[in-house]
Amino acid sequence: MGHLLLPDGTRYDGCLASGMCSGLGVMAFPDGAKYEGEFMQGWFHGHGVFWRADGMKFEGEFRGGRVWGLGLVTFSDGSNGFPRNEGFFQDCKMVRRKRCPEVVQRAQKVAYMARAQCQQV
């Protein structure tokens, strides 16, 4: 477990392996964006929640630092769009609509665990 403060003001709190973000962690960016979830070799990778600075969030799966897999977009007004922006995303773009409540719940749980772990340090 550790803390990193990058030159651009980005802060990481969480698990580290060989000096890289790996495992559960929280990354906060200078513009107000934030990611809570799983990391692998410095990338968002696995399940997590990403909030943009404007309040929009994605709850779901990430691969290699990108939105990639099943998940749900929620806009800053609390809506999910119409039709609902839930399904399979590839390189940050929705390619197929599909209900995926289990993936969203897992992303929320992983984000909670990452936050709780960082508060213990």
TrEMBL record:
Main localisation: other
GO biological process: response to axon injury
SMART domains from the UniProt entry: MORN
Superkingdom assignment: Eukaryota
Keywords, sorted A to Z: Cell projection, Repeat
Subcellular location, record wording: Cell projection
UniProt keyword Repeat present: yes
Keyword Repeat in annotation: yes
GO cellular component, one term: cell projection
Protein name: MORN repeat-containing protein 4
Originating species: Papilio machaon
Taxonomic lineage: Eukaryota, Metazoa, Ecdysozoa, Arthropoda, Hexapoda
